[in-house]
Records
---
Amino acid sequence: MQYKQLGDTGLFVSRLCLGAMTFGTSNVEPWSAIGTLGQKEAGALVDRALDAGVNFFDTANVYSIGESEKILGKALASRRDDVVIATKANGRMGAGANELGQSRYHLAKSIDESLARLGTDRIDLFQVHSWDPVTPLEESLSALDDAVRAGKVRYIGCSNFAAWQIAKGLGISEARGLEKYVSTQSYYSIAGRDLEHEIVPLVRDAKLGVLVWSPLAGGFLSGKFTRDGEGEEGARRASFDFPPVDKDFAYDIIDVMAEIASAKGITVPQVALAWLLAKPAVTSVIIGAKRVDQLDDNLGAVDVELTSAELERLDDVSARPLPYPNWMMQRQGATRIPENGHLTD
């Protein structure tokens, strides 16, 4: 296993993180479509990940309505001091008017409840799960700062924020002396490269970590889907078609990945994961599984080395036209980028 510094902190996390979204036996949608693993099955995945050197585990309070945190906490109980546990809060956890969002009320309550479910005295990385359009960022960041100072949380992060929202939060933290986000957990895959336009430049400038969720685009990049519909029956996407994917475009990418996989004697998912791991901005890629053999296949991606020619081929087939103002910045800034130490005319 390889490890990488989390943002601008001194904490190192494994390049692959085991996501616990498949943990839990809830029959509530969409969790029942994603995974319904009990303690025994989930424990086997956790044990296998630990054996492979994974020290990073991610969950959220809404996953199976709290069950995921409970199962993960029990699976890691005897090895708590050897791992980094990340969880999240924002989504609805009850019927009350204040059972969601990032108010001081809800965040303080969520942190205490997550600590209890995980069976631990601290959360290593606590992330706000999405943007809250109601609560002022000052209130949310102050509440998170209080949690860090109380020893309940060690680092804070955000998830599913736009670049301007991350930047605003960092600015508030800087101005007020509050804890700042050290990472963003965001969707990124070879079939969904929107992150590269605004967020990647921001995180590289601000030295934030990038934690990738759904690196296989909700299983669409698993290699089992074909243009004629094969592989869809019984798959997660049959009942939970998420995240959005331009399927015709993605099939062209899969064709190239399949050729590379065949030539290297590896699998299509390993190519998709290795492509992400080769991106400098990516800190850790969150992998999920229902079975140990699926997990083993994903774990093998850390040993895959794609050549520069293979990476270029994958970049080319998955490229999309730049959105404005990116294409204008590229055009106008071209002569400002040094070539061999010299500016071009």
---
Amino acid sequence: MKGRLHRGFTLLELMVVIVVIAVLLAIAVPTLRTVTRKSYVSSVVNSIIGDMQFARAEAANRHQFVSICRSSTGTSCDTSGVNYDAGYIVYAYNASASGANQAYNASTAGMVLLRVGPAQTNVSVQATDGNIVTFGQTGLPVPNGTRTAMNMVACARLAGTKTGNGVNTSDVPGARIALGVSGSVASTKLAVSAVCTAS
């Protein structure tokens, strides 16, 4: 009886397989990064819109003021900046002589912390201004200074960048969140030429 001939891969065949895998990875990795960055923007935008809608509904249900402010600590308002990617809080308080747009203070009677928006490292979120956003007892936004409406712009940051403005590109477009005078909240895709700041 003749013995069976066992044959393995030749060096040439192995090299062809490695080249094919390398080509597939070169195509797949950038696409995966693009999809991941798009999902970061979508997730952050949906969270902010959800929290604004929640604040509006709570204001009407509680018959109280419900405010949103930038907060890097999750325990107090910081109106010195416009980057909501540092985090924000949603809180309720009684309609009183002090009026709307009050900064959160845990020791103030009747002031209740409702939600804490976490800091974002993969997405920048720039607001029109750092002023407190407040919904009145009817669910309508309360003017703050000369501002009656508010915009936020969210853009994905480049890989390895955790601070500063993100980048708006045709592959990974940013999004504009608009809070209207009626209390409606909507998001739209940024134009390719748009910058990642709100106005």
---
Amino acid sequence: MFVHVLADRSDKLSAVCAALERRFEVAGERLDVEAKLPHAPFAVVVRADLRAVENIAALKKRAPRLNRAGKRIFLVEEPSHVSISQAYALGATLVLSGTIDRTKLVAALTDPADPAASSGGTSGKNDAVEAAATAIASMFDAASFGAPVDVDGTREAGGKIADRIAEHGLSEWLTTVRRHHEGTYQHCLLVTGLAVDFGLSLGLRKTDLERLYTAAMFHDIGKARIPLAILDKPGRLDDEERALIETHPTAGYEVLKDLQNVSAEILDAVRHHHEYLDGSGYPDGLCAQSISDIVRILTIADIFGALIEHRYYKPTMSRQQAYDILCGMNGKLEKALVASFREVALSR
């Protein structure tokens, strides 16, 4: 398998090539030289500072060929929402952040690609994944800088997820998302897919399903205001970090509240998706009668998604184990909805 490496400095280029050359046929080039990217390599690995305008311009110049590679892995050494958003905007299929881990990179390259990706291009089933990842990257980027959020684009991406799950099923979506995305982005994509499948299983009307998947796409937008070092911290958070994490629902509400095309139902879901029926949730300590149906549905999808997501520092929980935890949250979640969610949680 042929892997082409792109980097903005010679030392970065040498390090990545050295890490891969025992397993792959490897060639590389610096971004500041004339583009030599082959017509359609199996994979491209990019290691560059995505805060530098000249690096972004060089990658955009290579985009027509770059985007034909089945795997496009960007290595972001100083993780930030901005850098990760930029990577997905430039066509990344996977972003690995932090110190370069050879084992993890090789595993990502040897993991079987999606059929749509392996044939090159972004057509077919892969459209929904890339459209949704790009939309999430865009909204996190906008929230980080206080820029206008593309609400219609995010809603349209959610619709593509709904269409894909209706056609191919939930399990295929979960597998694809966990293969190509990490951390907060993976979580948003998983939760949206779970919410869509739950809504379909409940027989929601088209307009209600659209509200649900739009709320799911936006539910964690407030995390754009929280450092990735805390969001992706391995191990237990301390009290101060936990308190900061718990600000994300209100932060998300503040980002969206003045946008004319965001409905009251969506705002309610973004602010209250961590509320519980017994009043023990946050940020407002709502009780049963104050929690809307869309929030009750989204909360179940959110908890389940967090339990089954892939994190490099902990084993992945099985869907059966995650569903058992939901069933044990007595008084916090609506029993009838948890029972109905079984079909979603354990579907194959």
